[in-house]
Task: structure prediction
Amino acid sequence: MSKEWPLWEVFIRSQHGLAHKHAGSLHAPDAAMAIRNARDVYTRRNEGVSIWVVRSADIVASSPGDREALFEPAQSKVYRHPTFFPMPDEVKHI
Amino acid sequence: MPPDASLLDYLLRLADTDLVLAQRLGEWVGKGPVVEEDIASTNVGLDLLGQARMWYGYAGEVEARIAGTGRDEDAFAFRRDAHEFRNLLLVEQPNGDYADTLARQFLFDQWHLLLLRALSASADERVAGIAAKAAKEAAYHAERSADWVIRLGDGTDVSHARMQDAIDGLWMYTGEMFTAAPAGDPLAAAGIAVDPAMLKAPWDARVSAVLAEATLARPADGWMQKGGIAGVHTEHLGRLLAEMQFLQRAYPDAKW
Result:
């Protein structure tokens, strides 16, 4: 077994209604301590109202090598953006 | 002692205890066992420093009521010698290893939280206000240090032995936290200060519960060191102040 504490990814919600955003990572022996460490490392300047932590090893990421297959096909699909609908002038914030 | 003189003395006890422990925790900057702990323990130190500033601020006002002028927080922190400091002996004890630091923090935090919660109901509005604000920070400190005592006590053979040594070594400094107020103390009578003896039973209960969960033996209440709140300190305070006060002593009123 490695003597290093496992790595955790930290997600902070900055205010009610917003989604949790990835803030960074840290080491901790377990989830409870990861929350505490996240509180001390990432919310010292009043950044958050909620913390999520997840073991970095449990995150499944897309492979950079698959980038072409995964993302390039979306580049030429301009019709997927809802920009072809005329919007009435009264509608704001869209 | 007239009431304001007693209050000044009492505020300096609270302020000095916070400041000295903050300075001790600050000594871990850049040297923590892991970077997360480095940040966490200096965070606690900064909380305590902020609390010390509030107590010093009020102490200066009380001193002005007595003497016409009152010192500011820097004069209290940097221009007094060890015998003028009123902090508990417990908090000036050296950092030792991380178990010593956490044991000291644990024994202090459980008392500190009880004290601040009791002071939140002080008859003096300023004392009550500062205590209520500080109690929220202290609640986190108390939970954090108790958690560490349990983790290390109920950890490996080595961490258990070290934490037991740390608790045993510091135990003789815990009695001072509960020194009863002298008979006729005007602050206790006026409901401004808390009689520390009242904190002993809840502190005992909490500390015993954590030590039991940590599989640590609670030391017997034997000989207890006293003197900090009268200005009679262990040899360690002078060295701590020498480092903390050096700049202001060598270059008075230095600015940068």
